[in-house]
Amino acid sequence: MPTDTAASMYRFFGPSGFLSQWHPQFEHRPDQLRMAKAVEAAIRERRHLLVEAGTGTGKTLAYLVPALLSGKRVVISTGTKNLQEQLFYKDLPLLRESWPQPLRVSVMKGRNNYLCRSKLHGASELAILDGLEEVREFEQIQQWESTTQTGDRAEVQGLAEDSRVWPKLDARADRCTGQRCSHFEGCFLTNMHRLARESDVIIVNHHLLFADLAVKDTDFGAIIPDYSVLVLDEAHEVEDVAGQYFGLSVSNLQVQELARDTRMLLRMLRRKDPQTDQALHLLDDASGAFFQKFSGPDGRVGGTVLPSLREGAAAAYADLLLALSLVGSGLQTRADGVADFAPLFRRAQTLHETLRTWMEDPGADQVHWVERRGRGVTLQSCPVDVSALLREKLFGAVETVIMTSATLAVGDSFDFIQNRLGVDAPVTLRVDGHFDYPRQAILYTPTGLPDPRSPQYAEVAMELLEELLAYTQGRAFLLFTSHQQMRAFHAGLRQRLPYPTLLQGSAPKHQLLTEFKETPHAVLFATSAFWQGVDVPGDQLSCVVVDKLPFAAPNDPVVSARVQRINSGGGDAFREYQVPQAAIALKQGFGRLIRSSKDRGVLAILDRRIRTMSYGRTFLESLPPYSQTTHLQDVAEFLRG
Questions:
Q1: What radius of gyration, in Å, describes the C-alpha atoms of the chain?
Q2: Domain count of the fold of the chain
Q3: Which helix (H) or strand (E) covers residue 503, if one does?
Q4: Among 32, 471, 500, 586, which has the minimal tally of Cβ within 10 Å of its Cβ?
Q5: Is residue 201 in a domain?
Q6: How far is Cα 432 from Cα 440, in angstroms, rounded to an integer?
Q7: 272 is in which domain, residue-wise?
Q8: Is 430 exposed, middle or buried (0-12, 13-18, 19+ CB in 10 A)?
């Protein structure tokens, strides 16, 4: 096994290197070798590295091999749990088969991904199941529990993504008694942490990573064992995920769950407690009255509206704090004798403290808002700028952080991502990837459309889409910047198109994606949920259309606060924040089309501003070197070629 520096990477990634002997589909990729050398050097020199690696680079192996060779504990953080599983079950086994030394690798996910044996074994006493479907799911999980080594729900074949049984049985901390639990030694979480402590490589996701960073300095302590090297895959998501975990969140559903779980535990222990029952009734009433003050249409509300909302909720807020205190006192008293009550007491305390902070201590560096989704009303906050926190807790605390994604640079510059994340003087590298973009894709930017903000835009754009989709024979993702626009275009086109149409929201995302892949000539109408993490290689997806340049909604509380912060500091938020953010989002959306060397198709942006406004050049320079045209006839000729 080679141990020297750049030469060792060539021995792995060169035309006749180790990987050519180990990997059945290996092909030499110069950009992959360049990235691997950069990763190896960053780890050796204890520096941070930013790598934009275009689709097809082979970036996973480019960071895995030098990480494994480093001899240091490495944490790899992915954007999604699906990517975690791909790393663990697909990419690493290929290396493990031929690697001379044993590879000690483990996966860590959030608690709600694991089964709680205590809940499962106590379920019959709790009478938690409702209906035959829940009974069937419970029996499936019960049978699986007797054979699983990990307790990870990803192993349960056919379990619905929106299963109503799993949340009743998972290992989240709501009722966890830790070492006092009778199932502690056989606990799947205990086993997960033990394996992580024994591992050289730990695979996590961004949510768990930033949950860990947020609690490292608290009484709860670290979740992930200490590490020297961190790889952030899909690093373009880091700012938003970090903001969630360095902020606050309290909802009506959390309060309802506290009351439900307290009643359930009392029933299980066959305890009658009139005083706690009365406090729980007060909590139900007070929570309903308080959160009703913040109810309204789905979406986010913040800014200048919040002071009046807080003022209108003042009396109900006092009642809710009192009810939480009464419930908490009762739980604290019981926790002295019965360990199961301690987690419930901690939850009551946390809700009380979070609610007080959100209502009484807004903080100059925090942005606050109300999030409404269906029956849920959530009071939230996050830092306006996470760069200082990340500079201290991440980049100042870890020897080497490797940040990679297909979308990090704006034009040829990494300044935007460096400033947003607070990473000072990193090494940077941009590699285009392995695809022949001029041959495989044509970018169509029609200039004859009305301004996308005008009333005439929708009808003219729909007529153009009819023509374009006739050339591509459907087989398209139509990606919209708002749900309202998506629904309007779907309503206007579904009867006019001779192709099957699918609409986001009509079924779960994974089901829609499967249906799209299996339905010839399908056209999917979708929003940002399908802009990333979606892979449809082959002819089935031959066209991706974006309706407008994907600027974040300026009235969104977080966007508004960041814009105000930059402008008040003497900057130009539009050019420094809004344009770069939208350019990265556009790259993500267009990245759905070319996923393999055999893919070929059309990318279209139905927003004339990309050609008529000066900032449009930033978008064009940030995209891969596609063929480009403003004429539909060129698209037809490209598709015939």
A1: 26
A2: 4
A3: strand 501-503
A4: 500
A5: no
A6: 14
A7: 248-382
A8: middle
Domain membership of residue 583 (yes or no) is yes
Distance CA 621, CA 306 (A): 40
For residues 279 and 426, the answer to whether their CB atoms sit within 8 Å is no
Return the closest-CA partner of residue 506 out of 527, 531, 476: 527
Task: Give the whole-angstrom CA distance, residue 188 versus residue 614.
Answer: 56
- 608-638 pLDDT, tens digit each: 999 999 999 999 999 999 999 999 999 999 9
Supply the CATH number for residue 70's domain: 3.40.50
Amino acid at the residue 348: A
What are 412's two structure tokens?
Answer: 């040829």
Q: Do 30 and 130 share a structural domain?
A: no
- Report whether 533 contacts 589 (CB < 8 A): no
**Tokens standing for residue 255:** 């309060």
Angle between helical axes of 274-292 and 314-335 (0-180°, round to 10): 150
Domain boundary at 189, 206, 230, which? 189
The pair of structure tokens assigned to 584 is: 């990265």
Instruction: Read off the pLDDT of residues 222-244 as tens digits, 9 standing for 90 and up.
Output: 789 999 999 999 999 999 999 99
User: SS3 of 49, please?
Assistant: strand
Phi, psi dihedrals of residue 525, rounded to the nearest 5°: -100, 120
Domain with 570 in it: what CATH number? 3.40.50.300
Residue type at position 65: V
One domain, residues 273 and 350:
yes
Same domain, 513 and 365: no
Classify residue 87 by its DSSP letter: I
* 588, 484: one domain: yes
Residue 233 lies in a domain: no
Helix (H/G/I), strand (E/B), else coil: 481: coil
Q: How far is 476 from 639, CA to CA, in rounded Å?
A: 14
Q: Residue 549 falls within a domain, yes or no? A: yes
CATH number for 345: 1.10.275.40
Q: Which of 189, 211, 226 is a domain's end point?
A: 189
140 shares its domain with 274: no
Please check whether residues 419 and 473 belong to one and the same domain.
no
Please answer whether residues 52 and 407 qualify as being in contact, where contact means their C-beta atoms are separated by less than 8 angstroms: yes
CA distances, 207 to each of 67, 320, 465 (Å): 22, 30, 38
Residue ranges in 218-273 assigned as alpha helix (H): 238-245, 252-268
Q: What is the reported pLDDT for 5?
A: 54
Would you state the pLDDT for residue 126?
Answer: 55
Which residue shows structure tokens 């198109």? 497
Residues 66, 121 within the same domain: no
Report pLDDT for 222. 77
Q: Give the residue carrying structure tokens 């790899």.
A: 76
10 Å CB burial of residue 333 (0-12, 13-18, 19+) is middle
Phi-psi region of 234 (alpha: psi -120 to 50; beta: other; left: phi over 0): left
- Do 85 and 155 fall into the same domain? no
- Work out the angle at residue 568's Cα, subtended by the Cα atoms of residues 563 and 570, and round it to the nearest 5 degrees: 105
Average pLDDT per consecutive 10 residues, the chain (641 residues; last block may be shorter): 64 88 82 95 97 91 94 94 86 84 91 89 67 85 92 87 84 76 86 94 95 77 90 95 93 94 81 85 97 92 91 96 94 77 90 95 88 94 95 96 96 95 96 89 94 94 96 96 95 96 90 93 93 83 95 93 95 97 93 88 96 95 94 94 77
Summarize the chain as % helix, strand, coil (round to 5).
50, 15, 35
